[in-house]
Amino acid sequence: MSTDPRRRNAAPPPPPPPPPPAEPDIPITQLDGTSDEKPSSAANGTPQQHPGQQPEDATGGFKLKFCTVCASNNNRSMEAHLRLTTPQATATPSNTPSSFLPYPTISFGTGSLVRLPGPSITQPNVYNFNTTSYEDMYEELKGKDARLYSHNGILPMLERNKGVKWGPERWQDWRIGVPRVGKRKRGVEVSNTTGGPVGGEEVADSEYRNDKGAMGTEAGIVDIVITCEERCWDAVVDDLLTRGSPLNRPVHVFNVDIKDNHEEALVGGKAILELADELNAAARQERDVVAKDGVNGFDAGHAGARQGFDERVPEILAGWQERWPNLPALWTLAWF
């Protein structure tokens, strides 16, 4: 078929115009200023890291945060604090991998004063919480009677404590949820409204980050509280009820009944570490389940995200108790 002679010398049609530039992918923000878009970590299948949770690459994996409590924050709670923050190379009887890297840990006492044995039962050495360091106690008792306090184990105990943290802290003065960062304060005043320390003189060369197990506890929150005496457990549970759960965050409160002497504290510290390993293994499994959608509510302490772990705790404790029948245990689920 012949072509129209009028079109033989016509110019070719112009090329189509280029497509308009793509609009930038601006996420839609919610009323609180946060974005509806999932973070890049969720897009590639990695669970979102909650600000209060320590980076896993720095800890060898997820770690629960622990708090150990006894009467004076000197013997039993400090032995457990040391065990939980010292790298281990063993495995529990249930073949659960042990803590090759330390757990985030803090510790407290529930007594009104720090009481250490003196020359007689009616002459204890008494100190204030939050204002006296283990170093100060050590030097004072060494000056009083080095032979006596070395023989009864007080000086070796204080020597150990000096390597863990600055000094004894009182549970009732702990402001839960307030960051534990910067310099520690001496001479703390207690607020009647908040029940926590609100002032005090800063201690030179003493920062929270120097405590063993401080990494991961900067947010002032823990997942597990372990007391070492039933009256301490009662004091902790009563105090949490009095505070009224302002953070609405679940916390498991255990009691492992340990006699207040150096030998029993060593045994109790080993048992507490074993319990911590089993709890952490279960928490890691349940955390992986709820983190599949890319939003990690487990680290944020959401009750729904932790329901699976909460339901497994009684079974874990029952199995642990069978192996440690001489350390009677209590447990309850409380709220911060």
From TrEMBL:
Its main location: nucleus. One of its GO terms (cellular component) is nucleus. Its EC number is 3.1.3.16. It comes from the Eukaryota. Residues 41-52 have a biased composition (Polar residues). One of its GO terms (molecular function) is protein serine/threonine phosphatase activity. Residues 1-60 are annotated as: Disordered. It holds the Pfam family Ssu72. It catalyses: O-phospho-L-threonyl-[protein] + H2O = L-threonyl-[protein] + phosphate; O-phospho-L-seryl-[protein] + H2O = L-seryl-[protein] + phosphate. It is an enzyme of class 3 (hydrolase). Residues 11-24 have a biased composition (Pro residues). One of its GO terms (biological process) is mRNA processing. Keywords: Hydrolase, mRNA processing, Nucleus, Protein phosphatase. It is found in: Nucleus. Component of the cleavage and polyadenylation factor (CPF) complex. Belongs to the SSU72 phosphatase family. This is protein-serine/threonine phosphatase. It comes from Friedmanniomyces endolithicus. The lineage of its organism: Eukaryota, Fungi, Dikarya, Ascomycota, Pezizomycotina. The gene is SSU72_2.
